[in-house]
């Protein structure tokens, strides 16, 4: 059985959602707030952050990477497009873009004190992160216009990641009100029963599409 170490309302939502959609059993270990200092956990992930997946002797960290691993481990679930297709290329693109471009802005806003040595600089980091987030989601709104799902005609882990990142925006009700294409896709994703259950489990107050 998989063991996932995670925390509520974090990137843990992404591998949890993937395993829920796959329908595989897993053991969820909820970590305390902040960086873990548990010596046993630090053997798995020295930075003390989450999520971390234990798959037999294999340890995989980072929500996007874990979700990609799970999609490849369970191809029959269809959570990743076929290798060599345009949809697969878009899957790589969105999994990496959301994880490496959008999520760091989330971290800048939520953990602004990590990015400055000066207490007086915290609010400046936070304000800039919010502006950057708004800019990124405006660009994303144009990119997803008319898409049934993020990568093409089928639901994938990229859609799970998209949903999580949208709801991590610092003011997601306002962002979803502005970005109609993003809101439409978010509404389609969260209408899936297992995605709705995931958001409820993490205490996310959802926004009705439209």
Could you give the distance between the termini?
40 Å
Cα-atom Rg, whole angstroms? 17 Å
- The CATH architecture of the largest domain can be given as Up-down Bundle
Give, in spatial order, the strands making up the sheet with the most strands.
2-1-3-4
Count of helical stretches: 9
**Range of helix content:** 40-55%
Mean pLDDT across the residues is 95
How many β-strand stretches? 4
CATH class of the largest domain: Mainly Alpha
CATH topology of the largest domain: Glutathione S-transferase Yfyf (Class Pi), Chain A, domain 2
How many discrete domains?
A: 2
What does this molecule look like?
The chain is α+β, with helices and mostly antiparallel strands and 210 residues long. It has 2 domains: 76 residues, Glutaredoxin; 107 residues, Glutathione S-transferase Yfyf (Class Pi), Chain A, domain 2 (Up-down Bundle), CATH 1.20.1050. 53% of the residues lie in helices and 9% in strands. It contains 9 helices and 4 strands, in the order βαβαββααααααα. A 4-stranded mixed beta sheet has the order 2-1-3-4, with helices on one face. β1, α1 and β2 form a beta-alpha-beta unit. α1 packs parallel to α3, α1 runs antiparallel to α6 and α4 packs parallel to α6. The longest helix has 25 residues. The radius of gyration is 17 Å and the shape is globular. The mean pLDDT is 95.
């Amino acid at each position: 059985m998989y063991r996932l170490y995670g925390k509520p309302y974090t990137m843990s939502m992404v591998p949890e959602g993937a395993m829920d959609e796959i329908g595989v059993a897993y053991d969820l270990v909820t970590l305390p707030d902040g960086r873990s200092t548990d010596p046993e956990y630090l053997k798995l992930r020295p930075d003390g952050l989450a999520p971390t997946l234990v798959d037999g002797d294999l340890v995989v960290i980072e929500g996007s990477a874990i979700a990609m691993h799970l999609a490849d481990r369970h191809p029959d679930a269809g959570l990743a497009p076929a290798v060599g297709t345009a949809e697969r290329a878009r899957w790589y693109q969105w999994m990496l873009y959301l994880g490496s471009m959008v999520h760091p802005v989330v971290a800048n806003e939520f953990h602004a004190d990590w990015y400055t040595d000066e207490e007086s600089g915290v609010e400046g980091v936070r304000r800039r992160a919010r502006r950057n987030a708004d800019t990124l989601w405006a660009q994303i709104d144009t990119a997803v216009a008319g898409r049934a799902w993020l990568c093409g005609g089928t639901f994938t882990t990229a859609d799970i990641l998209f949903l999580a990142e949208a709801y991590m925006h610092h003011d997601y009700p306002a962002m979803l009100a502005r970005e109609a294409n993003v809101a439409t896709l978010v509404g389609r994703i969260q209408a899936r029963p297992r995605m709705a259950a995931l958001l409820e489990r993490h205490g996310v107050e959802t926004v009705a599409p439209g």
